[in-house]
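On clarity, I found the account of how folds are encoded harder to follow than it need be. What matters is that the chain and its backbone geometry are given together, residue for residue. For the editor and my fellow referees, an illustration may be useful. For illustration, here is how one protein appears when written out as sequence plus structure tokens:

___
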Amino acid sequence: MTGNPLRLTTATTLVVLALLITGVSKAQDGGGQLHGNFSTDIQYYNEDEDIGAIVPPQRLGANAWMNLIYTHKGFEAGGRFESYEPPLAGYPAGQPYSGSGIGYRYAKYTLDDLEVTMGNFFEQFGQGMVFRSYEERYLGVDNAMDGLRVKYRPYRGVYLKGVIGEQRFSFNSGQTKGPGIVRGFDTEVSLAELLDSNWTCAGNLTIGGSFVSKYQEDRDPLLVLPENVGIWALRANYITPKWNIYTEYAYKINDPNNKNGFIYKPGQALLVSSTYSVRGFGLSLGAHTFDNMFYQSDRSAPTPFDLNINFLPPLAKQHTYNLPATLYPYATQPNGEVSYQAELFHKWKKGTKLGGKYGTRLAVNYSVAYSLDTMGYGAVDDTTSRLGYSTNFFVPGDRMYFQDMNVELRKKVSADWELAFTYLNLVYDIDIIQGKPGKPVVFANMFIVEGLHHFNDHNSVRFEIQQLSTKQDQGDWATVLAEFTFSPHWFVAVMDQFNYVTVDDTFLQDGKVEVEPKRIHYPIGSLGFIKGGNRFQMSYGRQRAGIFCVGGVCRQVPAANGLTLSITSTF
């Protein structure tokens, strides 16, 4: 069930044209400014039976966005025109997008300590565990609010926020909205600002609290479902020149939905983290637990990507290297997990025995995620069964979902050369994380060598050699990448991913069936040009099926073969 699409009607068109004309005229006489950006990705698809490539009927997909923003003194207004004619294969993460139209528009003004926004907006309370409205465009995740946001500072150091509206659900020649209504309030107090000269500590303590409620009509013929579901959170953050200590606790009342099997169990979450940093040394420790924390404005949202009100940050390193980032990335399990992370950074100074002439940097990271320690209620009666289970709070269960231990050593060895060596040891429950029932847990080792060489002030080459070994899933992989930069305008890149599976003649598929390995190369080449605010890139080659993640949020990407053109421009 969705709201009516925001069509590009005649009235809407006139409003947009009036906004642009006003903006241009104001900009010309110095009264205001008009700026924005444009981005498009266009891909032509070829058939490729060897990799099971997706070939849409149209054979050509295109995603395009243009933002226009006008500002004048305390007033700001803007909009985004979007086009999916049709969208790229595998895009977006949630419900399908189609057509062209306005997907985002707003007006905002600021007067003294008051800020008011009408229309679409993005916002976050604390770490987002109770409310986070945001977009990650290249994942196709967009839960923009459409309604009202008010921010006010009644006194120095005191910050208030209030929001109410509906969430973006999909796109069909304009944004479509979900059936639920989201209301929220957040307050934050900075003691150093509030007390001013009376605050004598070297650091600052910030405390905050949030409350969010969603409303959705109950139309279930069998169950009595709560129409108003509230969630609240308290947080504290203490910062000194060396320390940053943060904690946040959230509690959600019973929220029966299709992600938890329509049970009436409350949800809760706790996040704690601390960071110690001085010059040349840093240490961070973190832990969290999430229990029944799916929170969507539609209790029957079709996918985990649609209409999310909150965001649960992962405690795992967000790798940028190709193999760990796209084969086995970790995404938070909202229904339940206990996670820990520790990271150490150290830099040996120049001139020391280990630092050498240019210094040496070492980074060690360890993260692990477990199931919850739970006990299911027996089906004594309907009431008992609907409670689902009980949880030992912040106690890990017996099942390990994920473990990542990685070490990176980075060193500049000469005026022209810099090298980095990385080792990763990974345990990955692909059944739980990627939803592949019956698949065995993946145990993998990865070795990565990265190098950067400057030929002169304008020309350089960067290369990566990556190798992954595992006896599970798809077996062994190797990746080779080289990027050539010819400053200030041109760059060329070539990459080949090779799934060689094993060096043996046979491979034990899923630890059960002995098969002959099917070895496949995924080569791709890119050519790019940059000038001013414009960037052009053309790529041709194979794209393997896998996972694409940003900030712990992931979507499946289908296998593809073809030509891709990307253009970005800022003005």
Remarks:
- The CA atoms of residues 451 and 522 lie 22 Å apart.
- Residues 1-40+71-259+294-313 form one domain.
